[in-house]
Amino acid sequence: MVAVSVRPTTSTHHHVRSKITPTSTLHRSLGLDSCSKAPRIRLKIFDESISLGFNCKHSTVINEVCLHCDRPMASDYGIRFDYIFDGLRLTLDEISRLKAANSNKLFAQKKLHLVLDLDHTLLQSRAFKKLTPDELYLKKQTDLNASDGSLFVLDDAYLVKLRPFVRTFLKEASSMFEIYVCSMGSRYYVKKVAKFLNPEGNFFDSRFIAREDFKEKSKKNLDLVLGQECGTIIVDDTKSVWSNHLDNLITVQKYNYFNDRHRNCKSYAEMKTDEIESEGELWNVFEVLRRIHGLFFDGLIKDVRCLPFKLFF
Hints:
GO terms for molecular function: RNA polymerase II CTD heptapeptide repeat phosphatase activity. Residues 107-276 form the FCP1 homology domain. This is RNA polymerase II C-terminal domain phosphatase-like. This promotes the activity of RNA polymerase II. The chain has helices at residues 13-18, 24-30, 48-51, 92-108, 166-174, 187-197, 268-271, 281-297, and strands spanning 60-62, 65-66, 79-80, 88-90, 112-116, 123-127, 151-154, 158-162, 177-182, 208-209, 232-236, 249-251. The protein is an alpha/beta fold. A 5-stranded parallel β-sheet has the order 10-9-5-11-12. β9, α6 (187-197) and β10 form a beta-alpha-beta unit. α5 runs parallel beside α8 (281-297). It is globular, with a radius of gyration of 22 Å.
């Protein structure tokens, strides 16, 4: 439930408002007019009384101040969307409006929503200290050029190995989907490794949902994805974290490039080999996504959740 408490107006609220500096990221994500001096959400009907602060629904709050009427709000007001803009809070009604509006905009562009996990789905990370003796050679084979490499060093303490076909997968998928990253990793980690996947930053924009955004640390959900679930597909290697959205989920085989103590076999790294791009998991997933996209926009289905994804494999 969204808290609706409102702090009493004080003489300092204009000072608080002056600290708010919405960026182009916020404008793009919420449909703000980036050309206006005072950012306003584009509403089909923008009543004068709302612009003056009367009967304002306080649908969008930044740093505890209503974006529409400048009224100070309680610190627990609304739902947090810090991944879009630090201090951003939205009401449930506004979230629903934005989900519908964004989906309608994407559907008109013949695009759906795609939510991607990181670890063991698109890549694998391993601390230096956890490398096996037969994997230590990798520390001397890392790539410096993020645009075409596949093995990178993170913070002088970790190796990050991209899954074969991942860059082609992202490039092709971005033409059919608006892509989100949804990970149990920290926001710092997610943004760091995303630069290895997409140095230009054009596939994800600011759509990084990390563990700081989840109320339940062992569960993921689509609450913070600004899109309708009927047009949203999830790709993840872990089924259990999506218990509330199994109909949206494509479960993929884990990518284990480094040694896994739970498996009684050598790792790809130890065998100095890897998945074959044209036979790997991401290749197969992309073919499924392409077919689902075609079915949706050919009018054969109106909801991706009606498809048993496992039948495509």
